[in-house]
Write a structure and sequence with these properties.
The chain is an alpha/beta fold. The chain has 12 helices and 11 strands. α1 (about 10-25) crosses α6, α3 (about 55-65) runs parallel beside α4 and α10 runs parallel beside α11 (about 245-260).
Length: about 300
C-alpha cells in the first residue's frame, strides 16, 4: 500500500484532520510525523538559514523524519485563500526547500492552492487514484473535519482573562506553545485564543483589517480588535525573522497602547528558553494586575 507522509507542523494544525481522513478514505496509509521535539528541530536547522522563522525550521525537521519512511509527502503550496488574501513567501517557498531536501528519497505531492482549496485536493486525489467518484466521496466524508479547530479548556477558578495571539502553527505545536500556555495558566489567567472566534469575525475586512493582505495576519488583527476591550492583557507570540508578524505586531502594540491594554510581544526562536518565557510572563502578569485595579469590570 502507498504510504503518504504528513508533517505534523505548519498547516497540519489547521488541516491535518481533514487530510488524514481524505487520504484514508482514498485507501492510503498515512504516516504523521511525531510531535516536534529538540531532535526534529535540530534536523530542520540543517536545511535553512538562521534568519528563517522557527515554524519553517520545524517543518524541515518533520520532512527529514518522514522522507525515508514514506512514498510521498503531502505538502500543498498554499498561495492564496479567502479571495485575494495571501500566505507569506516562506510558506509558498517551503515546497521548493522540501524538494531539494528529499531529493529522490520520496515524492512531494504539492498541489498549488490559489483560492481553489477543494479543487486542488480533488486534482491530487484524481492524480493518485484516477477515479473521480471515489475522490468526491473521500472529500465529502473528510469535509466535516475542516472545521475542527483546536480550543483551550480553561479552569473556572481563574479570575482574569488574557488573549494569547499566535498563528495556529505556533500555538498548537506543543514544542512552541505549551510552555507559554502553562506559564499563563500558572499565573492564574484564563486564556482566550483566536480559535474561540467564528470565521465571520476572523475574516472580516472592516476597518484597518481591509489593508492587511496576508490571510493569517488578518485573522490575528481581527482577533486583537475583537478582544482588546474584553481582556485584561494581550500577549502576541511572534517568530523571530517573520516580516508579517513584526509589522502587524507593531501596529497592534501601538493600538493596545492607545486602548491602555497591557500588551506583551513574545519573540520566539530556537534559542527561546522556558525560564526566559516564565520571567517575561510573570513580569507581564504584574503589569496586568496593577492595571486591573483600575479596570475591575474586566473580570470574566
Ligand atoms: S508568516 Fe511569519 S512565521 Fe509564518 S511562515 Fe511566514 S515568516 Fe514564518
Amino acid at each position: 500500500m502507498i504510504k503518504i507522509g504528513i508533517p505534523r507542523a505548519l498547516f497540519y494544525f489547521r488541516y491535518g484532520e481533514f487530510w488524514q481522513h481524505f487520504f484514508r478514505n482514498l485507501g492510503y496509509e498515512i504516516v504523521v510525523s511525531p510531535s516536534t521535539n529538540k531532535q526534529i528541530l535540530e534536523q530542520g536547522l540543517k536545511y535553512v538559514s538562521s534568519e528563517i522563522c522557527l515554524p519553517v525550521k520545524i517543518i524541515c525537521g518533520h520532512i527529514e523524519v518522514l522522507k525515508n519512511q514514506v512514498d510521498a509527502i503531502f505538502l500543498p503550496r498554499f498561495v492564496e485563500l479567502n479571495h485575494g488574501l495571501y500566505t507569506c513567501p516562506k510558506m509558498i517557498g517551503i515546497v521548493d526547500i522540501a524538494q531539494i531536501q528529499v531529493g529522490n528519497a520520496c515524492e512531494i505531492l504539492s498541489p498549488k492552492i490559489k483560492d481553489n482549496f477543494m479543487l486542488a485536493h480533488f486534482q491530487t486525489g484524481l492524480k493518485l487514484t484516477g477515479n473521480p467518484i471515489k475522490v468526491i466521496k473521500a472529500l465529502n466524508r473528510a469535509i466535516p473535519y475542516l472545521s475542527h479547530h483546536k480550543k483551550l479548556s480553561n479552569s473556572e477558578d481563574h479570575k482574569q482573562r488574557i488573549l494569547l495571539l499566535s498563528h495556529f502553527y505556533n500555538l498548537w505545536d506543543d514544542f512552541i506553545g505549551k510552555d507559554i500556555i502553562n506559564s499563563f495558566q500558572s499565573c492564574g489567567f484564563d486564556i482566550a485564543t483566536k480559535e474561540d472566534l467564528p470565521d465571520k469575525v476572523l475574516k472580516s475586512d472592516k476597518g484597518f483589517a481591509k489593508n492587511i493582505r496576508w490571510v493569517y495576519e488578518r485573522e490575528l488583527y481581527n482577533a486583537f480588535q475583537y478582544y482588546s476591550d474584553k481582556v485584561a492583557g494581550i500577549c502576541n507570540i511572534i517568530s523571530f525573522g517573520c516580516g508579517p508578524d513584526s509589522l502587524i505586531g507593531e501596529i497592534m502594540s501601538k493600538q493596545a497602547n492607545e486602548y491602555k491594554t497591557p500588551f506583551l510581544q513574545l519573540i520566539i526562536d530556537e534559542h527561546t528558553s522556558k525560564t526566559g518565557i516564565n520571567t517575561r510572563i510573570e513580569a507581564f502578569s504584574e503589569i496586568i494586575n496593577r492595571n486591573y485595579q483600575s479596570k475591575p469590570y474586566l473580570t470574566k
